[in-house]
Amino acid sequence: MIIFAVILFSLPVFADSYEELEESGQIVEVDMENELPLYIRAGVGLKIERLQLDLDKINGLLAAADVDFSALDETMMLYGIEGVGGVRNGNIYGAYFLNGRNRSRGANGERVELSLTYGGLIYQRGIYMKKNTDISIGTGMGYGRSRLELLHYKVDATKDGILGATGTTLEKSFLLLEPSINFHQQLTPIIGLDFSVGYLMTHDLDGGWSLSGHELEDSLDGFEGGSVSLRVNFGM
């Protein structure tokens, strides 16, 4: 609903942007087989993003713990939805939401799970347009939450040595900025593909994580990393 609201709210802005481009002579009329307005880009689609994280600090925190936790993989796959609308050779607006998680398992059953959930608004500026292909640059701006869950087993002396499970959950919130360059290819009048390359930057809103007396300040700095995403777009 948020994505559709953003697109609808932006329609008057699209009209102003088009009039500005038309007056400056930047609108290029290209004959297409369909009758859709060539200068408009609008649609909603499923998005997959591959995020290459720098988790040295997080894995260092796990290695320093009193429990034999395994390191987390620094490549995370995120899945979600994204919607955009605007002028192909002008201003494009939208919104997106993504969620992903990585897990590791130790030799004695220790489990670690890191999850990221974030989303926000998108602004892009079209820099190239030709028939069914266009290129834009811009950024995502928003808010997210990270969650680190730890589970391990310990001997319970009060129960004749029976193993008992114990866990810890650490959570943090952050602001994000994700500049990117986006390539769009319209395959049919209503289906297109978007390929984006960007970089996720975060600003920590909470204090440092600590585990077994080991403090890790500014741990969200380690969540920055390059991103590559693919979106199947339903629209024009």
Helix content: 10-25%
Find the count of extended strands (DSSP E, 2+ residues): 10
So how many helices?
2
Under CATH at level 1, the class stands as Mainly Beta
Can you tell me the CATH topology? Answer: Porin
Order of strands in the sheet with the most strands? 1-2-3-4-5-6-7-10
- Mean pLDDT equals 78
Beginning-to-end CA distance, first to last residue: 19 Å
DSSP strand (E) fraction? over 45%
| Total number of domains | 1
Largest sheet: 8 strands, antiparallel, barrel
Order of helices and strands: HEHEEEEEEEEE
What would you report as the Rg, rounded to the nearest angstrom?
23 Å
Descriptors:
eight-stranded antiparallel β-barrel; mainly beta; two-stranded antiparallel ribbon; Porin; 236 residues; 2 helices
What can you see in these coordinates?
The chain is mainly beta. It has a single domain, classed as Beta Barrel (Porin), CATH 2.40.160. It is built from two helices and ten strands, in the order αβαβββββββββ. The protein has helices at 2-24, 56-64, and strands at residues 40-53, 75-87, 91-105, 111-130, 133-156, 162-186, 191-204, 209-211, 214-216, 225-235. The strands form two sheets. It has an eight-stranded antiparallel barrel. It has a two-stranded antiparallel sheet with strand order 8-9. The radius of gyration is 23 Å and the shape is elongated. This is Outer membrane protein beta-barrel domain-containing protein.
